[in-house]
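lol forgot to send this yesterday, sorry. struct tokens for the thing we talked abt
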């Protein structure tokens, strides 16, 4: 099997749009008033989903924010959110189930914020 390089002029990013409704649904599952995973396996699945959503959303937010002037406030806010999301991606959950829930909730807040920034950077189209 032969490896191929991406076509010239592409960044290697997937050009399909992000599934923002699905991302927000996972966020709601963890941040709704009484929402809480019922088992460690469900928590692990949600955590992995959130991490994946963050890995897809971070480059999109960066790319869209990068098109704005350097002194633009929405750009600065979006890039600050990206920085915090990257930091959270580097953190490990605690060893207990409640610590894992708290970790997943922090990831969910970052995913929600990234979705908000995507909408703001698109002129509120999301």
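and heres what i got for the seq, position by position
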């Amino acid at each position: 099997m032969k490896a191929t390089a991406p076509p010239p002029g592409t960044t290697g990013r997937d050009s399909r749009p992000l599934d923002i409704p699905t991302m927000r649904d996972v966020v709601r599952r963890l941040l709704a008033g009484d929402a809480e995973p019922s088992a460690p396996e469900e928590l692990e699945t949600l955590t992995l989903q959130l991490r994946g959503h963050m890995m897809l959303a971070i480059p999109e937010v960066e790319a869209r924010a990068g098109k704005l002037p350097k002194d633009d406030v929405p750009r600065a806010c979006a890039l600050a959110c990206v920085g915090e999301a990257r930091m959270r991606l580097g953190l490990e959950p605690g060893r207990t189930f409640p610590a894992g829930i708290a970790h997943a909730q922090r990831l969910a807040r970052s995913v929600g914020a990234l979705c908000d920034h995507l909408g703001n950077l698109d002129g509120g189209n999301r």
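Residues 20-121 form one domain. anyway ping me if u want another try
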